[in-house]
Design a protein that fits this description.
By secondary structure, the chain is mainly alpha-helical. It is 95% helix and 0% strand. The longest helix has 105 residues.
Length: 110
């Protein structure tokens, strides 16, 4: 009879150990799930920060490019205006310059 009691007590001890092991495994799984959720949340946060930073860099590059294009267009316009002014001055003074050249060439000084 002593043996039956010891056997029953041993089975009870094993069942308690199994319950304790089950609790430990369950806690480990919960901890792992929590860590995975935390890691996903942290990764999403990092991705959002990186995306915001890259969007800001892109906006800055686009702004610089737009500013440069506007500057190039302004310089081209000013150059065209100056060339037109030179052409107008040439057309205005062409006849007078030609007549002075002809007069200088045809005048003979002794």
């Amino acid at each position: 009879m002593v043996r039956l009691f010891d056997l029953s007590q041993g089975i009870h001890t094993l069942l308690e150990a199994e319950k304790e092991a089950s609790k430990i495994v369950s806690q480990a799984r919960e901890y792992r799930v929590k860590r995975l959720k935390d890691a996903r949340t942290e990764a999403a946060k990092d991705i959002a920060e990186l995306q915001a930073r890259k969007n800001a860099e892109l906006a800055e590059i686009q702004k610089q490019h737009t500013d440069q294009s506007a500057l190039e267009a302004k310089i081209q316009q000013e150059t065209n205006q100056k060339l037109e002014a030179v052409r107008q001055q040439f057309e205005k003074n062409k006849a007078e310059a030609v007549s002075k050249l002809v007069e200088a060439v045809s005048t003979v000084e002794a």
